[in-house]
Amino acid sequence: SAVISQKPSRDICQRGTSLTIQCQVDSQVTMMFWYRQQPGQSLTLIATANQGSEATYESGFVIDKFPISRPNLTFSTLTVSNMSPEDSSIYLCSVHQGGGYTFGSGTRLTVV
Amino acid sequence: DQQVKQNSPSLSVQEGRISILNCDYTNSMFDYFLWYKKYPAEGPTFLISISSIKDKNEDGRFTVFLNKSAKHLSLHIVPSQPGDSAVYFCAARGLDSNYQLIWGAGTKLIIKP
Question: For the stretch B55-88, what's the b/e string if a residue is b when 16 or more beta carbons lie within 10 angstroms of its beta carbon?
């Protein structure tokens, strides 16, 4: 299965600023997903990022707040823009490959 | 509306005994179910899955049972080991979901020595 390197693993950010999270995959994958896990809750899908097309956002998530780039089949970024304390969460990237789903190690974001 | 529910936030089990984690779903269009384990500061790792055409799948100490009529699945871990202490997530995928998963809220399993 694919191996994903996700950075940063954690960050503390000031409100109003932006943070870009990166995921590098060790093989080419078509489908990549970005999730948010708020404290004590399940994983919520933010968007699906396929190379060569714009990301598809789920209800409640918009491109201006969570812009995503997918320049090639091994890399993607998620930016959390104009952050507020409500954006404090764990953010995870995931890929679908060979019938299974693999996750990055997550980014724990705290907004103060 | 939660389509995948894990009603037990936590479960404590004696080492060596069986751990049973439960998951209920509401969408009859789900055709594939997965269980993941998550340690703190790590991403979820895949444990076991089951297709809707089966009612049981086994892999070592892990067995998943699917009861389609009850829209219920369970993960059995036997025997439970200290390293099994983690949060367990149930996830489901629909027939026409573009490979997107719907997740339960997770159950924290604590294995007592």
Answer: eebeeeebbbbbeeeebebbbbbeebeeebbbbb
- Strand (E) or helix (H) holding B23: strand B19-25
Residues of A within 8 A of B46 (CB-CB) are: 1, 100-102
Count other C-beta atoms under 10 Å from residue B110's C-beta.
14
CA nearest to A43 within chain B = B103
The 10 Å Cβ neighbour count of residue A12 is 11
User: What are the tens digits of pLDDT across the range B56-80?
Assistant: 999 999 999 999 999 999 999 999 9
Q: Sign of the C-alpha dihedral, residues B84, A106, A88, A29?
A: negative
- Per the CB < 8 A criterion, the answer to whether A55 and A79 are in contact is no
